[in-house]
C-alpha cells in the first residue's frame, strides 16, 4: 500500500500527453508547520485498510440501530486536527471532503474550542431557547455580529432554522405567502380561505409552484425534495408536488475554450425557463438555483447566465432564490458564491447552512409575512450555533482565508489540468471537481484515495468533488495531488 509521507525533498513526475511536471513536496522547514494549525499532522499515515477492523466493529454495533451502508469509516474527532481526520483505527487522512463541505476552519480549531470558556456560550448550551417566544437577551446582538455582518447586500432580514433543507423549505413558504398576498391584493384572509386550507384545498391551499433545475439538489424534505433532481434514490417512493424543472445548461470544459457553445446552451436553458413561467397553468412563486450544482455533479454556469436568469424572474414577478447551502461561506473564494455574478440587484432570498455551522435564509424586508407565526417553529435556530458562526467569520477575516482559497484553488486547478486521466476539470476557488471516464472508475478512485490517506468524495454520475477546508494550503494540495497521481497510475 502506498504511503503519502513527506521526508525532506521529494519529487513526483506527472506525465501528460504534452508536458512533464515536477511537483516538489516541501521540506519540513520551509512549509511546515501550518500557520493555521502548527500542531496538525504533517502527512497522512495509514496503518490498516479504510475502513479498518475497529471501524467495521463500530459500524456493526451502530447498524443495530441505524443504517450504516453509507458510512466511509468511523471518525475519532477528538484526535482529528486541522486539515486531517483520524479514524478509530488510528489512520490519519488528509480530508478534502470535510464532512460534506461542512467544516470551514479545520478540526478542533482553537477559536471554536475557546467558546467553551465564554459564560454566555455556556448559558446558551444549558438553556436552549425557543427563540420565537423567549429569545435570550443577547440574541439581537448575536444576529448583528454574526448573520447580518455577512448578509448579502440588500438583504436586511434573516430567519434561522436547523438545516439546509429547512432553510429551503421556509424560503419556499415565504415565496408562496408573498405570491398569495399579491394575488389577493394584500387584503385579509376570507373565511373560505381559512376553512379550505384546513382540508388542504383551494382557495386556502392554492396550487402554486417553485421552479428548479435538472440535476439540482435542495434537500430531502417534501418541498425541497420536489425541487431536487440529482439522484433517483433520494426521491423514489416519496409523493411530490407537481412542480416544473428546467434543464440546467450542460457546459463544456474548459470554459475558456468553449465560450460560443456554452453561450448557446445557456441561452437555450434561459429560453426554457421563460417558457415554463409563461405557460405554467399554476403561478410560479419562486425559482431556486445553486451557484454550482453540487450533488448533481458540480455543474457550472456563467455569471451572465445568472444575471439573465434574475432578469427573467423580475420580469415575471418570480422570486429569485439562491441556494448557498453548499457554496456559501468562502469555499469559492468569496464569502457568497453569487458575489462573483455582479448582479444588478440582490437575490430575493439566499439560503445557507453547512460551513456556517448554522442554517437559515436571508431575505428582503418586503418578504416578511404580515402576520405572526407564519415563519415559525419551536427553536427557530440555535444561539449555540450562532456563537460558532461568529467565531468562523472571525477566523475567515482575521486569517485572510478567502485569499488563501483563491490562491490555493488556482494552484490546484492548474495542476489538475495536466493530468490526462481526468476530464472536465472545473472550479471556483477551492470548490473544484473533475470527471472520471465511468461511474465504476470514479468509485474505485475514491476508495483507493482513502486507502492511501486522502479522504475524498464524489457527486453526480462520475464526478469527483474536492471540498477542502478554507485552511487548505499548497503543502496539503501537493500531498493530495501526488497521492492522486500515484493512484491514477495504479489503475
Describe the structure.
The protein is α/β, with parallel strands linked by helices and 491 residues long. It folds into three domains: 1-10 and 40-99, Aspartate Aminotransferase, domain 1 (Alpha-Beta Complex), CATH 3.90.1150.10; 120-396, Type I PLP-dependent aspartate aminotransferase-like (Major domain) (Aspartate Aminotransferase, domain 2, 3-Layer(aba) Sandwich); 409-454, no CATH class. The chain contains 16 helices and 16 strands. It has helices at residues 28-31, 53-62, 98-101, 110-113, 119-126, 139-145, 164-183, 191-197, 222-227, 232-235, 259-279, 303-315, 383-398, 401-416, 439-451, 474-490; strands at residues 10-15, 20-25, 84-86, 92-95, 157-161, 209-213, 245-246, 284-289, 319-323, 349-352, 359-363, 423-428, 431-435, 454-455, 457-459, 463-466. The strands form four sheets. A seven-stranded mixed sheet has the order 5-11-10-9-8-6-7. α6 (139-145) runs parallel beside α13, α11 (259-279) packs parallel to α12 and α14 packs parallel to α16. It is globular. Residues 1-30 have low confidence and may be disordered.
Q: Please identify which CATH superfamily of the largest domain we are dealing with.
A: Type I PLP-dependent aspartate aminotransferase-like (Major domain)
For this structure, the CATH topology of the largest domain is Aspartate Aminotransferase, domain 2
- Tally of distinct domains: 3
Helix content: 25-40%
Biggest sheet, spatial arrangement of strands: 5-11-10-9-8-6-7
* Cα separation of the termini: 13 Å
Structural class: alpha/beta
Q: Mean pLDDT across all residues, rounded?
A: 92
Work out the oligomeric state of the chains in this entry: single chain
**What is the β-strand count?**
16
**What top-tier CATH class of the largest domain fits best?**
Alpha Beta
For the record, the CATH architecture of the largest domain stands as: 3-Layer(aba) Sandwich
**Largest sheet composition:** 7 strands, mixed
Shape: globular
Strand content: 5-15%
Q: Which spans of ≥5 residues are poorly predicted at pLDDT below 50?
A: 1-30
How many DSSP H or I helices?
16
Rg for CA atoms: 23 Å
